[in-house]
Amino acid sequence: MDTASESARELALLESIEHDPDVTQASLASQLGVAVGTINWHLKRLIEKGYVKIKRAERKKLRYIITPEGIALRARLTVDYIEQQFLLYRRTRQRVNEQLEQVRAAGYHRVRIQGTGDVADICKLTCMEQGMEIVPDGNAPILEMVGLKVVLHLEDKK
Fold it and tell me: 36 near 25, Cβ under 8 Å?
């Protein structure tokens, strides 16, 4: 596995194949939001490494079978995925806590949160735990979600 996205894709492939061995490459591509060629490339890699086998179900229909090694790989990828998500959670909480210290040091007791998604949810929970009021607008520093980062905007907010 070269990157986290490749690992995530291979995990999703293995889970989909385990759920439906008769799944097509086109439906896998649709599920994962990638090109059929990308699915084909990943499947070839999984087959070459012995994680998946192909059986011909009908003349043009294939059936994908996960080998015991493939099941072990799926388990490892699942554990890695969970560890990465907890790491993201811990890092985000630590960063937000550091930013809330700066907010308090600047004399504020409330913030605005700009953005949505999991990182914004972690940010909101951390603010609530720290007793920081979250306001929709007004003169308050902004915690902005930029991808997976949280950026603090303090200036000109008094």
Answer: yes
Per-residue pLDDT tens digits for 98-156: 999 999 999 999 999 999 999 999 999 999 999 999 998 778 999 999 988 999 998 65
Say which residues have a Cβ less than 8 Å from residue 150's Cβ, sequence separation at least 6. 92, 95, 96, 99, 119, 123, 143, 144
Q: Give me 76's structure tokens.
A: 């490892």
**Tokens 């605005």 -> residue:** 112
The Cα–Cα gap between 66 and 18 comes to: 7
pTM value? 0.72
Distance set, CA 122 to CA 33, 58, 85, 107, 116 (Å): 26, 49, 12, 23, 10
Is the CB of residue 11 less than 8 Å from the CB of residue 74? yes
The percentage of residues in the chain with a pLDDT greater than 70, rounded to a whole number, is 96
Q: Which residue has the tokens 């995530």?
A: 8
